[in-house]
Amino acid sequence: MTSIIKIAQKTLIGNRRKGYTLPTNNKLYPAQWNWDSAFIALGYSYFNFNFAIKEIKTLLDGQWKDGMVPHILFHDTNTNYYPNHTAWNCGNKIRSSGITQPPVLASILKQILDKNKINKKQRLEIKKIVKKIKKFHEWFIKYRDPKKTGLVSILHPWESGYDNSPIWDEPMKKVVVEKNIKYKRADNKLINPDHRPLDIDYDRYVTIKNNLRKSNYNPKKLYKSSLFNVVDVGFNSIFLRANKDLVSILKNFNLDTLSISKYIKITEKNILKLFDKKKGNFFSLDIKNKKKIEIPSITNYFILFADLNNRQINNKLIKNLKRHNKKEKYFFSSIKPNHKSFEEKRYWRGPVWINCNWIIYKGLKNKDYLFSKKIKNLTIKLIEKKGIYEYYSCKNGKPMGASNFSWSAALYLDLILNKN
Questions:
Q1: Tell me: the pLDDT tens digits for 10-64?
Q2: Which amino acids are annotated catalytic?
Q3: Which residue, of 23, 59, 325, 343, is most buried by count of CB atoms within 10 Å of its CB?
Q4: In CATH, which of 1.50.10.10, 3.20.20.70, 3.30.1490.480, 3.90.1150.30 is domain 2-417?
Q5: Rg, Å, the chain Cα set
């Protein structure tokens, strides 16, 4: 155990650059990713508090003037990655992508602050961070929920963080790939292409991106003009929990909580409209095509992380969660194994992801302690047995994707060292 803790710490340090950390130490992801950095900061907080705060500060240095925090920051512009900074052609102080990612940062910061005493100088520094996070959340409320439904939209599958999930299959089929599309993938040269998104997926990703770029990423226009617009229950669950955690932090720093608190009430009421009482599961909404999306993704259970004050719904979800992939050796598979879209090895279409287990574990701690402990222990064992990788087979635990994966290392540290 002690040796794995040291390996996890070395993994983060080895992937660290000037004030930020790469998702891995190879050419697969040669930049700073939004929700990766949040998870990474939590890992650092167990052995280097300054690195944790610096990771968050560097991420927020890339915040746009309107409040958006991009999903990628290109600190090093000399890479073969696609889409690179020139393909996006945007950014504020730092070259960046023109879209965002799940806003898990407030929840991570709350956990870091809950377990660390901070001095006056650090408090002033963190207060600036908190104000930036609040601005980020207000950006979502203003531009991704213009009708004030309490539910925010994602305008590109990449914004979800689970890029090629079957959740997006139907909305993506409606995207007409632009003629003479040109780009050069590197990911499927570095990693087994059987483990990566298909070329048709990338054709559509790039088509959506190019369409967003035509509007110069103007948030006032994109909600209506994007070729993809989905209210994803997993993403909204993370945002709801993040808003609750942000309110707690704002109070701690004597900052105004009114707008965020009001939005939480609207969300808590309207997210229940995405619950199918008969099936006992949540679904997502394809806003663009006005259709329900009912895919048995593990991310639908992120609603447990949102801490809904509804025991009946929570109990139904937990009952279904326990059946999600109980026949497989490792859980949780990103898609239920008996579903037609399940693929054991292809990125977000089947493999086990450490961050998903972590989010669900955190959501279950105050609802089903024994089951949460089981998830925690099995996730720890998976990493200790198979190593620190990007994702794993639910059937045999085979590690896949990038090795030396930062958020797997960081979340292992939290799972093994957090005594709460």
A1: 999 999 999 999 999 888 999 999 999 999 999 999 999 999 999 999 999 999 9
A2: 163, 390
A3: 59
A4: 1.50.10.10
A5: 20
